[in-house]
Design a protein that fits this description.
Chain A: Keywords: Cell membrane, Membrane, Transmembrane, Transmembrane helix, Transport. The complex is a heterotrimer of chains A (344), B (264) and C (350). With 344 residues, chain A is mainly α. Chain A has 14 helices and no strands. Chain A is globular, with a radius of gyration of 21 Å. The mean pLDDT of chain A is 83. Chain B is an alpha/beta fold. Chain B is built from ten helices and twelve strands. By secondary structure, chain C is mostly helical. The two termini of chain C are 19 Å apart. Classes of the chains: A mainly alpha (344), B alpha/beta (264), C mainly alpha (350). Chains A and C meet through helix 6, helix 7, helix 12 and helix 14 of A and helix 7, helix 8 and helix 14 of C.
Chain lengths: 344, 264, 350
């Protein structure tokens, strides 16, 4: 990337940012290999490669292609979706605490799942394909509710009102969930609680297919809006002065954030923390420019969830720790360390 | 010749009107300044011109076209706005922030083109920020930061600059520094500059055209010699001003002043 | 065009004087106290065995142990309703202090890691010491709340720039996420999540005199502390620079504020769990009535917080007898619409 208009140190920053992004990619690949190798049946890296190129035996193929690979792909995709969603929300609200949770996405999805489980306590096999759909509907419905409630004629949406409304609705939904919790049988409760804690349980290509289109459409869309996010970050007045139609841009970006997080949450449950910390960490690594921030946050999110899922699968074999818990246990101390170290 | 025409404008928040039926024509290629006491509606007027606030009534015309009907990006290509309280997010460098000024000229994916770089580098040079261009904004002093924001507005490449109190929080020398820079931009490049200033003497020294507001109305407008009179200052600010002549601009300035209430 | 420095500070003070309403404060306090007493009487008289308000009164004044009604009042209903009042008052005052100190309208005691800390410790107790008596559970919850606060406050103060409100908020969120995840992990692994939910749903129903005896001196002292501190919190709510300019030792005020919040919210959270909404909405309500002076906001929050929880507990008992509806759900049920209304109407006030 040589560009005669950039000074030497700007080119250095650019190079550094590219190195960061490449490093993250490498980390994901390494974790991928480790993850392949983790589980009840071990596959060595060589076996993984051989199987990937069609040289493995039937059992290896089954494990790799039908169990591990879809799960790994989902983990990465979910992480990316949540991280980018969080980056969008932090960008447009200028609030460091914004994450997909403020749009009620986690709460809405959780409530939908819980309602279903408590009124149709079916066997575990039946709702597997229905649950993500329900969760997505719940998430979308809650987001629309919050948006409508914080919309005011002539003024549109202000980020502050959006956050306040989101907090209130999420609190209301949580308390409804408390009431429902008490009605559940212990088995159903355990299922719902695991779901809420956030775990990549839908390890199946169908989930990949359900999730992938959202990310394929929305991630490039959001990336193309990098410049708009940069401008929105400067505050309302400046953004208008620079010619951004902020009301329309906000609406599209919010919709994209809801789509990304809703699709992710519907297959993963509540791994909300990724959406909060991945953008923060990315900002520390590559700065506030969204052209770099968004890809870095996406890769970090993917890496975090994949690592968390891998660890969660292997630490307490044969039982699993939900990835959401591992993410928080690993991510929070690092986040706190950054917080203590930084001046601003 | 006027570049901006403010025509019977009324602005207010819900029920209370802050600006009442105000009309004025702002001349092209000149420095125009709005003065007036706190709460007189000058910032509100500027925000309406900057299309941040909706008007209850009337219209603002940019070269004869109603500003609220123009595409916001088109307006941004003609007119740059520097709000009073501009805050940059953490982690941006000077260069990055200034490059954001190219936003209205970029389309689609928006990589910076040759022309964009030329504007950015020109803005950096003209504001004297060359040595700071790779520093993070947080590391700059107040005066330097204000220069960065002005540079961003300059990189926008507009012939009109609208600034809301660009010298607030700066010391004497840095205030002058900013105003001289704006004067240079006006003289050498013929840019139209519209701003709100609190310092009457600065307003008089650097403006071609002044507007004095009080209680949401335009009290008087014209050249500094017409506006900066003892009588006008009494009407607008309720002060008894001792007038003198600025040795640099030969415009009237206020040497010192007393409140009428105290004098009696 | 007010600015936050110099003359602007004085403007803020003027503003404050204009916007605080002592007369409304007095009226609000009197109405609140009457309402609270009435609610307490109501709550005692209703229940599985209905007791007339007159009997309630005589039971309090001339308690005679032979009468069953007097015993019910004395042993079950009175401690419960007093517990509810204490919890509500504590949450509300803690929330008011937090909002004033951080100047953040969304702040409540949960932000300090209190709720997550208490919930985590409770999960530990349920997982490893399932036979612990109620009293010890409360104590350990309190320890957990303290742990949360110490981590958040420690991280905030250790950092280079000191404990800014922003850093407090972020550290609080991260610590809450960490402790919450650990608690959740324990709950899942040991399958105690639902037991925990039932424990919290119980609300103040298990309150006994012995608990009140331990809790109330602490809460009382903390309340007095909060009222003494209220003037300083008013100044702090105008911004740190102004507070320093007015001769306030903000470091000291902050530490005392934290300690008071820990005692109040820690005690409350260990009894009923995270009923965070009380601490969030009551201070807003108080500010709406009495203006921006914390000398009025804090006493008002105290009374109305108590009133809200007493009423919520009352409704929780009678809505679906003999089952109890979780009190947190009821408070949210009342609080959410109110909060939405505020968010929609105000914007600036919030």
């Amino acid at each position: 990337m040589s560009n005669s208009f950039l000074t030497a140190s700007q080119q250095k920053t650019r190079r550094k940012n590219f190195v960061t992004i490449v490093t993250l990619l490498v980390l994901i690949v390494i974790t991928f290999v480790i993850s392949m190798n983790t589980g009840v049946i071990k596959l060595t890296p060589m076996e993984v490669f051989r199987t990937l190129f069609g040289q493995g035996d039937a059992q290896q193929q089954l494990i790799l292609f039908e169990f591990r690979l879809p799960r790994i792909v989902i983990a990465v995709l979910v992480g990316m979706g949540l991280a980018v969603s969080g980056a969008i929300l932090q960008g447009i609200s200028k609030n460091a605490l914004a994450d997909p949770g403020i749009l009620g996405i986690n709460a809405g999805a959780g409530l939908a799942v819980m309602l279903y489980i408590s009124f149709f306590p079916t066997t575990k096999a039946a709702p597997v394909y229905l649950l993500p759909v329900l969760a997505f509907v719940g998430a979308g419905f809650t987001a629309i509710l919050i948006y409508t409630l914080s919309y005011r004629r002539h003024e549109g949406i202000t980020p502050m009102r959006l956050i306040l409304t989101g907090v209130a609705i999420a609190a209301g939904i949580s308390s409804a969930m408390i009431v429902l919790t008490l009605r559940l049988t212990p088995e159903n409760y355990q299922f719902v609680a695991t779901w809420l804690a956030g775990s990549i349980w839908g390890s199946n290509w169908r989930f990949v297919l359900a999730l992938l289109p959202w990310l394929l459409i929305l991630l490039p869309f959001v990336y193309a809006k990098s410049r708009v996010l940069n401008i929105l970050n400067l505050g309302e007045l400046t953004a208008i002065g620079l010619g951004a139609s902020i009301e329309r841009e906000r609406r599209w970006l919010l919709a994209a954030a809801v789509g990304l997080a809703g699709a992710s949450v519907s297959v993963s449950g509540g791994i909300g923390f990724v959406g909060l910390i991945a953008p923060h960490l990315a900002r520390q690594l590559v700065g506030a420019k969204h052209q770099f921030l968004l890809p870095t946050a996406a890769l970090l999110g993917g890496f975090l969830v994949l690592m968390a899922d891998t660890l969660g699968r292997s630490l307490l074999e044969p039982s699993e720790i939900p990835a959401g818990i591992v993410v928080a246990v690993l991510g929070a101390p690092y986040f706190l360390y950054l917080l203590a170290r930084l001046k601003e | 010749m006027s570049v901006l025409e403010i025509d019977h404008v009324a602005i207010g928040y819900s029920s209370t009107l802050i600006v009442n039926d105000l009309s004025v024509e702002i001349p092209k290629g000149q420095i125009s300044t709005i003065i007036g006491p706190n709460g007189c509606g000058k910032s509100t007027l500027l925000k309406a011109v900057a299309r941040v606030l909706r008007m209850q009534n009337g219209a603002v015309y940019l070269d004869g076209k109603a500003i609220h009907q123009l595409k916001t990006k088109e307006v941004a290509k003609r007119m740059a706005i520097l709000p009073q309280t501009a805050t940059a997010p953490g982690g941006l460098t000077v260069f990055e922030l200034i490059s954001y000024g190219r936003f209205p000229h970029q389309a689609g994916f928006g990589t910076l083109r040759k022309e964009d770089y030329e504007y950015i580098h020109w803005a950096i040079d003209v504001t004297g920020l060359r040595e700071f261009s790779d520093r993070p904004i947080e590391a700059l002093s107040g005066g330097q930061r204000q220069r960065v924001w002005i540079a961003m507005a300059l990189a926008q490449g507009t012939d009109i600059l609208v600034l809301d109190e660009p010298t607030t929080y700066l010391d004497l020398a840095h205030q002058l520094d900013i105003l001289l820079l704006l004067q240079k931009l006006n003289k050498e490049e013929g840019r139209t500059i519209i701003m709100v200033l609190h310092d009457l003497n600065h307003a008089s020294r650097f403006s071609h055209f002044m507007m004095a507001m009080k209680g949401g109305n335009l009290v008087v407008n014209g050249s500094p010699k017409e506006v900066m009179t003892k009588e006008n200052l009494q009407t607008v600010f309720n002060i008894d001003a001792e007038m003198a002549v600025c040795p640099y601009s030969k415009n009237p300035i206020c040497l010192s002043y007393q409140l009428y209430d105290i004098k009696e | 065009m007010t600015t936050s420095t110099g003359v602007g500070g004085l403007n803020d003070l003027d503003e404050l004087q204009k916007r605080s309403h002592p007369i409304r404060g007095v009226v609000a306090l009197i109405v609140g106290v009457i309402g609270l007493l009435f609610a307490i009487g109501l709550s005692i008289s209703f229940g599985a065995a209905d007791i007339s308000l007159g009997t309630v009164w005589t039971a309090v004044i001339h308690f005679s142990p032979e009468l069953t009604t007097h015993q019910i009042i004395h042993d079950i209903r009175l401690p419960r309703v007093l517990g509810a009042a204490l919890v509500g008052a504590s949450f509300a005052v803690a929330g008011a202090i937090m909002q004033g100190m951080t100047r953040n309208p969304l702040a409540d005691s949960g932000l300090l890691g209190l709720n997550a800390g208490a919930a985590f410790m409770l999960a530990v107790c349920f997982a490893f010491f399932p036979s612990l008596p109620y009293m010890y559970l409360i104590l350990w919850s309190f320890v957990g709340a303290g742990l949360g606060v110490v981590i958040v406050y420690g991280i905030g103060s250790l950092s280079k720039g000191g404990l800014t409100p922003m850093r407090l908020v972020l550290a609080g969120a991260a610590v809450s996420a960490l402790l919450g995840a650990l608690g959740e992990g324990l709950a899942l692994y040991y399958r105690i999540g639902q037991d925990l939910a039932f424990w919290y749903a119980g609300g103040v129903s298990g309150t006994k005199w012995s608990h009140l005896q331990i809790l109330s001196p602490w809460i009382l002292v903390a309340m007095i502390g909060a009222i003494i501190l209220s003037r300083s919190i008013t100044l702090l709510s105008l911004g740190e620079e102004i507070a320093i300019g007015l001769g306030q030792r903000i470091g000291v005020v902050k530490i005392w504020g934290m300690i008071i919040v820990l005692i109040l919210a820690g005690a409350a959270v260990s009894v009923v769990g995270a009923v965070g909404f009380v601490g969030l909405i009551i201070p807003h309500l108080a500010r709406y009535i009495v203006g921006h002076d914390y000398r009025w906001i804090i006493p008002c929050s105290l009374i109305y917080g108590a009133l809200l929880v007493v009423l919520a507990d009352f409704v929780a008992r009678i809505i679906n007898p003999p089952y109890e509806t979780p009190i947190g759900a009821l408070i949210a049920f009342i609080g959410v619409p109110f909060f939405l209304y505020l968010a929609r109407k105000g914007g600036k006030e919030l």
